[in-house]
């Protein structure tokens, strides 16, 4: 008796990144109702399953989709708009004024779709997005079939999305009402308080209360630059991490993005609260902010994911580049080539990243019951030969353009160089119309 499934992917080496780190020379993944029904050796279990559709990878690698722990997807419209500047000049003199001209539901919807195309093409199946008009971003993720934690941005003062604090509260309330939290759902709602220098403690407390009420994660840019750490100490008499601890913001549903300027004792504080961190080494390098003490954070047991940050500060949303730079950046700064080995970096881009986003039971590895979020990577190129180690290849040699197929929740959203889940050319055309306002 064979078991009927919806989709079978087989015909190449398979890396599961599951708890036992199982690998198969000729693997097979059987998918039913969006989830993985079986994973194994093609010759051992292949005859037990039949499917409406089979993708034969013809020797190419099957692995879990990558997890982009932090981006601002709609900022694809500001890619390359302002480069080679310090964070505060870049943000306050260039990015925010441009956003004020562009921002709205249309900008966020189409800008997000452009980023989704970039990410799906590079094998990213899940991202944690943080931006304003997050309902429009959430719609873009749902329409394109990409898994996302869509976090609504929060900042003090009037913004294109609200006139005052009361209106802001209403925006957050209706966002959660429109996109309720459901386990295993394609889009999970969250809040993103921009940073301790653009949001006061009371704003953090309000956001935290709303997140707790809705079972949602609270993201923030944390201790990103030396200037920020100095400014917060001047304003509040303490560092960003200690300020958020004092105000009752840290918890196991808190995700600190960047965490570059954190002291060893503050790493302990984050670990004690069970907080997660997302490391964005390319963005931190490009804005000249420094390197986060990730080895110490991992040593303290913190779930550290890897993120590209937004397309205006990276400017790529390609985790293969991010993994490469993460490994090399830590070696460069510490002058220790054993630092941040390829295996550790892969964990951050896969299951540690999923854990940081509260998605450890959904994404980041291939095992029965998990969502079928996976990719097929071309191994035929000259940069894949010889292939002594998959870890080495994936971190130091592979690139997003090697991805042939991307599957999210069992749906083939990208295959043979074509986005299948939405009109990519149409989205690019709409986006280029919108930037004419600049
Ligand atoms: Zn960011």
Q: Provide the β-strand percentage band.
A: 15-25%
Tally of extended strands? 17
Averaged pLDDT, please? 97
Which molecules are bound in this entry?
zinc ion
Given this structure, which CATH class of the largest domain is correct?
Answer: Alpha Beta
CATH fold type of the largest domain? TIM Barrel
Largest sheet at a glance? 8 strands, parallel
Q: Low-confidence spans: pLDDT under 50, at least 5 residues?
A: none
Proper CATH architecture of the largest domain: Alpha-Beta Barrel
List strands and helices in order, with pairings:
Blueprint lengths: L2 E13 L7 E10 L2 E7 H4 L3 E8 L4 E4 L1 E6 L15 H16 L2 H17 L2 E8 L2 H11 L2 E8 L10 H14 L8 E7 L7 H13 L4 E5 L3 H11 L3 H7 L7 E5 L5 H10 L2 E4 L1 H6 L7 H6 L4 E3 L12 H16 L7 H8 L1 H6 L17 E4 L12 H7 L6 E6 L2 E5 L2 E2 L4 H11 L4
Parallel strand pairs: 1-4, 6-7, 7-8, 8-9, 9-10, 10-11, 11-12, 12-13
Antiparallel strand pairs: 1-2, 2-3, 5-14, 14-15, 15-16, 16-17
Helix pairs in contact: 3-4, 3-16, 12-13, 13-15
Zinc ion binds next to loops.
């Amino acid at each position: 008796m064979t078991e009927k499934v919806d989709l079978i992917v087989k015909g190449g080496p398979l890396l599961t990144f599951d708890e036992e780190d199982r690998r198969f020379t000729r693997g097979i993944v059987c998918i039913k109702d969006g989830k993985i029904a079986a994973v194994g050796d093609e010759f051992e279990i292949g005859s037990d399953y039949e499917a409406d559709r089979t993708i034969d990878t013809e020797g190419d690698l099957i692995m879990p989709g990558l997890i982009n722990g932090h981006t601002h997807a709609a900022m694809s419209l500001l890619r390359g708009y302002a480069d080679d500047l310090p964070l505060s000049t870049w943000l306050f003199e260039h990015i925010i004024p441009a956003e004020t001209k562009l921002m709205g539901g249309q900008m966020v919807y189409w800008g997000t779709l452009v980023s989704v195309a970039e990410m799906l093409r590079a094998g990213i199946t899940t991202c944690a997005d943080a931006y304003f008009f997050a309902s429009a971003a959430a719609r873009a993720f749902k329409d394109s079939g990409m898994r996302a934690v869509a976090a609504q941005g929060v900042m003090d003062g009037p913004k294109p999305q609200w006139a005052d604090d009361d209106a802001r509260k209403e925006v957050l309330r209706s966002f959660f009402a429109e996109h309720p939290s459901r386990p295993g759902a394609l889009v999970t709602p969250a809040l993103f308080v921009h940073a301790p220098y653009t949001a006061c403690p009371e704003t953090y407390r309000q956001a935290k209360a709303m997140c707790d009420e809705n079972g949602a994660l609270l993201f923030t840019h944390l201790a990103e630059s030396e200037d920020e750490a100095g400014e917060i100490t001047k304003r509040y008499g303490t560092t960003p991490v200690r300020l958020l601890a004092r105000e009752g913001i840290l918890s196991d549903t808190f995700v600190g993005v960047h965490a570059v300027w954190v002291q060893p004792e503050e790493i302990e504080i984050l670990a004690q609260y069970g907080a997660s961190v997302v490391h964005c080494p390319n963005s931190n390098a490009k804005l000249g902010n420094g390197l986060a003490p990730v080895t110490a954070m991992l040593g303290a047991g913190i779930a550290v994911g890897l993120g590209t940050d937004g397309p205006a500060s990276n400017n790529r949303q390609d985790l293969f580049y991010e993994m490469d730079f993460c490994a090399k950046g830590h070696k460069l700064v510490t002058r220790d080539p054993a630092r941040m080995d390829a295996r550790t970096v892969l964990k951050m881009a896969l299951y540690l990243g999923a854990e940081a986003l509260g998605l450890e039971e959904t994404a980041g590895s291939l095992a029965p019951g998990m969502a079928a979020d996976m990719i097929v990577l071309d191994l035929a190129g000259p940069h894949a030969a010889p292939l002594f180690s998959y870890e080495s290849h994936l971190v130091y040699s592979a690139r997003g353009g090697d991805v042939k197929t991307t599957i999210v929740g069992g749906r083939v959203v990208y295959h043979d160089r074509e986005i299948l889940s939405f009109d990519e050319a149409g989205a690019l055309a709409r986006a280029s119309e919108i930037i004419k306002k600049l």
